[in-house]
Specification:
The complex is a heterodimer. Chain A is an all-alpha fold. Chain A is built from eleven helices and two strands, in the order ααααββααααααα. Chain B is built from nine helices and ten strands. At the A-B interface, α6 and α7 of A face α2 and α3 of B. Chain B: InterPro entries: AAA+_ATPase, ABC_AA/LPS_Transport, ABC_transporter-like_ATP-bd, BCA_ABC_TP_C, P-loop_NTPase.
């Protein structure tokens, strides 16, 4: 039971990282990034290719892959998303969705749909004795990295001026601009950062999850539910909901296996009925 | 009439899918005056306002502030050239304190640059000025209250303080008394009278009593064009103005 809870938190660590990236992007750009899952998948696949073909190990991938994908995100924002933002939101919806299909199929063409193996880094291949039960060291590491990254993002948002600008621009873009603050300058880096978070989640997933072209598509649907439950635009809500949903679905899986796939969505429906703006979202009051 | 205009618009037009919301407006706002934009609903007041503040880009025409061409500039650039605005609909950060709002506004002209990692505690240096501004709009006792919890009239006062924090040459107020009870209206009028000292104020306003007690100059808009312009005492009896308003059932002033 405790072990199940721990499994849940580890699963939640992925939800949290992905939901956080989706939320900062949605908050700053007003864009729902449907390609987020594809970048998670690319994160895992790039790590696999780097290791398999170039011998680049996990630790290097953990740094290089998120940075590289962040740069890809920046280019995409500059070339496409920026031009589509002033138009109907549907255009970015179509763009990011189309991008997902393209990325998935490109990977499929090269590597097929079967899962690729990715070994755990040797330093983390053992188990840790957590007192009540022993647990794979790698999973503990994943949880630690995720918590650390979430705390770091929180610190940047709350304690620095760029964080203040991002928070202000997320909540009230018009007022922020009227105060003479250049919101536009931060849009591109924030998008890149959100993509880098997805890439990081992908690298972390490679040694413990099946690396295949559809791994992102399977996960991202749940992540969208997580973002909705946490409250659209609420960064704290995304992270809190990420870990909570991970926990709830792992326990649900254990007690009522029949509901394992649907539990998250039942939860989402319940939260929406009770609080339409999500757990930590703010209902707009005049 | 002899002072040079600080804000001018020439042939300003904005077209939305074939509909000309603002249609060739010339405007001269004299320095140090209060200039009201009035007109029936749909006359193009708010569109004009958004053009002047950079929130909309004109289809044609030019805008200058203090002799500098600001046509097509972004809202943040317009703000940095000394044009501050308020919003018709309250648009504060619900969870941020009144003081926090002002510190953010006071810090905005200092270039954020790439020193972005520096702590927001730097904002504390703006605290005295922030409290001074709050005092000026009568919010000294509400400095630490989250803006979302302020009463409506106080929210509007905070918005005015925010615009003042930018120390603007030109202050644009979008319906500063919209939705207010009589008491708040009077207080807001007094407040504007007080802050106009040494500033130019442009306001969009529906309430003719407010216009009459504040405005030195009034521009009446209709169908996106300037119908009449002059001091309030002159335009109020103008038959064209009366018929423009009578044609609009909403306005019974």
């Amino acid at each position: 039971m405790l072990q199940q809870a721990f499994n849940g938190l580890v699963g939640g660590a992925f939800y949290a990282l992905l939901a956080l990236g989706l939320s900062v992007i949605f908050g700053m750009l007003g864009v729902v990034n449907f390609a987020h899952g594809a970048f998670y998948m690319l994160g895992a696949f790039t790590s696999y290719v780097l290791l398999d073909s170039y011998g680049v190990n996990f630790w290097a991938a953990l740094v290089v892959v998120p940075v590289a994908l962040g740069v890809v995100g920046i280019v995409l924002e500059r070339l496409f998303i920026r031009r589509l933002t002033p138009l109907d939101p549907l255009y970015n919806f179509l763009f990011t969705f189309g991008l997902t299909l393209i990325l998935q199929d490109l990977v499929k063409r090269e590597y097929g749909v079967q899962s690729q193996p990715y070994p755990r880094p040797s330093a983390l291949s053992g188990t840790l004795d957590l007192g009540l039960f022993t647990y794979p060291a790698y999973q503990v590491f994943v949880l630690g990295v995720s918590v650390l990254v979430c705390l770091l993002v929180w610190f940047v948002l709350v304690r620095t001026r760029v964080g203040m600008v991002v928070r202000a621009a997320t909540e009230r873009p018009e007022l922020t601009r009227a105060l003479g603050i250049d919101v536009g300058r931060w849009v591109t880096p924030v998008f890149g950062f959100g993509i880098a978070l997805a890439g990081l989640a992908g690298v972390l997933a490679a040694p413990m999850r099946a690396v295949n072209p559809l791994m992102g598509a399977d996960l991202i649907i749940v992540v969208f539910a997580v973002v909705v439950i946490g409250g659209l635009g609420s960064l704290f809500g995304s992270v809190a909901a990420g870990f909570t949903i991970g926990l709830v679905s792992a326990l649900g899986n254990y007690y009522v296996p029949a509901l394992s796939q649907t539990l998250v969505f039942i939860l989402m429906a319940a939260v929406l009925l009770w609080r339409p703006a999500g757990l930590f979202g703010r209902e707009e009051a005049l | 009439m002899t002072t040079a205009p600080i804000l001018t618009a020439r042939g300003l037009a904005k077209e939305f899918r074939g509909f000309r919301a603002v249609d060739g407006v010339d405007l001269d706002v004299a320095e140090g005056k209060v200039h009201a934009l009035v007109g029936p609903n749909g006359a193009g007041k708010t569109t004009l306002f958004n053009l002047l503040t950079g929130f909309l880009k004109p289809t044609t025409g030019r805008i200058t502030v203090g002799g500098r061409d600001l046509t097509g500039k972004n809202p943040e650039q317009v703000a940095r050239h000394g044009v501050a605005r308020s919003f018709q609909i309250t648009s504060l950060f619900p969870q941020m304190s009144a003081r926090g709002h002002l510190e953010l506004a006071l810090a905005s002209p200092t270039p954020l640059g790439w020193r972005f990692w520096r702590s927001d505690r730097l904002l504390a240096r703006y605290r005295d000025r922030a409290l001074e501004l709050l005092d000026q709009v009568g919010l000294a006792d509400h400095a630490e209250m989250p803006a979302g919890n302020l009463a409506y009239g106080r929210k509007r006062a905070l918005e005015l303080a925010l615009a003042l924090a930018l120390d603007p040459k030109v202050l644009l107020l979008d319906e500063p008394t919209a939705g207010m009870g009589l008491e708040d209206v009077d207080r807001t009028v007094r407040l504007i009278q007080q802050v106009r000292e040494g500033r130019t104020v442009v306001l969009v306003e529906h309430n003719m009593k407010v216009v009459s007690s504040l405005a030195d100059q009034v521009t009446v808009l209709q169908h996106g064009q300037v119908l009449v312009e002059g001091p309030y005492a002159e335009i109020r009896h103008d038959p064209r103005v009366i018929s423009a308003y009578l044609g609009d059932a909403d306005v019974a002033h």
